[in-house]
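dumping this here before i forget
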Amino acid sequence: MIAGVLLAAGGARRFGSQKLVATLDGVPIVRLAARALADVADLTIVVVGSESLAVRAALGETDVQVVENSAWAEGLAGSLRSGILALPETAEGVIVALGDQPRLDVVVMRALIARWRDTNLPIVTARYRGERGHPVLFDRSMFAEVAVLRGDAGAKGLIERRPERVAYVDVDSAVPRDVDTPHDLTALGG
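structure:
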């Protein structure tokens, strides 16, 4: 089983309001990201925190499991940890994506899974014209290391610490845009 964890707990300080409920093409951006991840994962977990009721409502009828991260203000690692700890024993790997990237590419996520199966490496990440970005796939063998991360850096340190454990999917496009500000949303067409 390949699970998906969508990180959607942040406070959206730069946006000025809860960005995940802002709409793109008439749909909340968190719902767009969750749908894309659910298209490739056998189970999708969305980690919520800041304004969790609004984010839950924005997910609508999307087929996901929602996990609350009450310590969301501690940073990205706490949300990642919450998602990893909620995974079932049957999860062989997990694709981690960001709730503020509404244009998640299903083709890239499928390529991560294929690369992971081909290489048997415990970490597979997308690389956009040479720049590493999300989503990232972690093999079950990495779950314990991911679950003890702290701070706002997420799993970047795990990826950089032992590069021999990392496989890449090279993508000939720019890194998918995060929606951090209203300008970012406008640039995506929202």
